[in-house]
User: Fold this.
Amino acid sequence: AVAAQTRIEELGEITVQRLPRFFEALGHKYRYIIVDGLRDFNDHAVATMDLAHMVVLVVTQDVPAIRAAARSLRLFRRLGYPPERLRLVVNRYSPKGPISLDNVEAALARPVDFTVGNDFPLIEQALNHGHMTSELDPLAAVSRDLRNLGRMLAGVPAEPDNRGFWARLFSRR
Assistant:
């Protein structure tokens, strides 16, 4: 597998022309291939997105992120990506955030497909210790969100919310 910190264009022998064979070979070994961290639209990134079954655009609740997402969506339309191939995810979501989900959807002219809650302390701990949030706190809302995001992307139903009535009523989300 490709290391998480490796950029696609740094894979040496893998030219844009060889990307289809590269991903085909990976597809024989892995059911799902996730390419994370495409930060620009260079030739390798566009070729990778052209090959993808799904493109997930991750945005936060702030004006610069929403403007960047709007530019990306315009590019995706120009590239001919059908809307059903795109997913919009709001990361670090807070119902009290500066921009509501309704505003995000209005600005981007499409629905938000999924939200991942904001739990900075747990995420920071997971990053700094090299653990998944579900290893540190499997019952945390953000751990459940991340599991359900994976399930949504894989086309598997979300896990049920087994928290009690009062916990759901007074949750931060």
Summary: The mean pLDDT is 88. The helical segments are 19-29, 43-51, 63-78, 101-108, 120-129, 133-136, 141-154, 165-169. The chain has eight helices and three strands. The longest helix spans residues 63-78.
